[in-house]
Design a protein that fits this description.
With 230 residues, this protein is α/β, with parallel strands linked by helices. It contains nine helices and eight strands. The strands form two sheets. Strands 1, 2, 5, 6, 7 and 8 form a six-stranded parallel beta sheet that branches. It has a two-stranded antiparallel ribbon with strand order 3-4. The chain is globular, with a radius of gyration of 16 Å.
């Protein structure tokens, strides 16, 4: 089974991060009954010094190069990933997409309705490449801008409603789409390092929501139990 992580800055991570991708890889190693592979066209972290995806400085020395693969980018959202997901999913023969996108779109590129339209473009492109692909989508979660900017917070609420509708409209028996839950009790003062990007605690919470959907809906893996360590 082949998984691909798709996301923005919260998924690619920056130099020195563990990333929730690492937490999810640990979980799959510990609980998945059968072989699996992490696929994707990229492996690097974002480097704040170069403002590009040029860093290999993962915090976890046991995170192997082959498991670092992803389709994520700092400052990239649904509109950027919609044209990229088809080629990446096809080349990687992806079975399951784990997607965390939306915050950067609403913050810089498109309002809720336009972002939701890009979700539908993304789904269509993924299915054109892999007709039986499965997807788990994470809503936009708590962040500091939504606390301080009421119009932006309203766009987040609106987008999450439209995302749920898109999942209901587009999911099929052949290519199911599921909506992960927003992490219960997620606290930007405890679970992020800057009000947006997850720290170790936040990474575990994000991985836990994806793990819960995979286990409860499709019987993949088991309940999420953080590995020993940070």
């Amino acid at each position: 089974m082949r998984f691909m992580f798709v996301g923005d800055s919260m998924t690619i991570g920056r130099a020195g991060d563990y990333t929730w991708r690492y937490r999810m890889w640990q979980h799959l190693c510990a609980t998945l009954d059968g072989p699996f592979e992490i696929v994707g066209p990229r492996t690097a972290l974002h480097d704040s010094a170069t403002e590009a995806a040029t860093s290999r400085a993962y915090a976890a020395p046991d995170f192997p190069e082959h498991a670092r693969r992803h389709l994520a980018g700092w400052g990239e959202g649904w509109q950027h990933m919609a044209p990229l997901v088809g080629p990446a999913a096809g080349a990687g023969e992806v079975d399951v997409l784990l997607v965390s996108l939306g915050l950067i779109d609403l913050g810089f590129y498109t309002e809720a309705d336009g972002t939701a339209a890009n979700v539908r473009r993304f789904v269509a492109a993924a299915r054109a490449a892999r007709p039986g692909i499965r997807m788990v989508l994470l809503p936009v979660i708590a962040n500091v801008r939504a606390e301080d900017d009421a119009p932006f917070a309203a766009q987040v609420v609106r987008f999450n409603e439209l995302l749920a509708k898109a999942v209901a409209d587009l999911s099929t028996d052949a290519s199911p789409i599921l909506l992960a839950a927003r992490p219960q009790g997620y606290d930007i003062r405890h679970d992020t390092y800057d009000g947006t990007h997850p720290n170790a605690s936040g990474e575990h919470r994000l991985a836990g929501e994806f793990a819960a959907v995979l286990h409860q809906a499709w019987g993949l893996g088991g309940p999420y139990r953080p590995a020993d360590g940070p």
